[in-house]
Amino acid sequence: MSKLKAAVIVGSTRRDSINRKLARALAKLGQDRMEFEFVPIDDLPLYNQDDEADLPASVQRFKAQLASADGLLFVTPEHSRSIPAALKNAIDWGARPWGQNSWSGKIAAVTGASPGAISTALAQQHLRQILGAQGVLLAGGETYIAFKPDLITADDAVTDEGTRGFLKNFVDQFASLVGRFATPAKAAA
Fold this sequence. Notes:
Layout lengths: L3 E7 L7 H13 L3 E5 L18 H11 L3 E5 L9 H11 L11 E8 L6 H13 L3 E2 L5 E3 L14 H21 L2 H4 L2
Parallel strand pairs: 1-2, 1-3, 3-4, 4-5, 4-6
């Protein structure tokens, strides 16, 4: 029996992204429940329907990683009051070619961090709308993290006890939901 597997998609392509730090902290908090595989999106070419007949290698890798995951964890910043362009591009590639939608039927959780007061509320709202149209089953609840410079250590530990408990609950609820829909062998693991 194998452990449940979540594909982690970070909406930022920035190396030192606070959302990448948050994603690593979530993976650490949830490692007792799931395996977390970080799925890069920065190597995907700009979506072009002309390329669907012969999918680029990075797109094939991306779609294979999505297919092997039991659940999807999206951790995204907010760009211009919406999702980053790289994330939208990845969603477009995952949905294509027609009839080969890699998103449909997957369980997903959405979160994000920002130093701002409303965090990533608008980006998450847009992302949920886009994913819902792709047939993704979205975990309930809204999770907005107001990021402070010392919130997450270099070894991915959350320093604030209240935030750590909140994030642990978030990742545990996600794992439980994914477990309900996983194949019987994985759900029993």
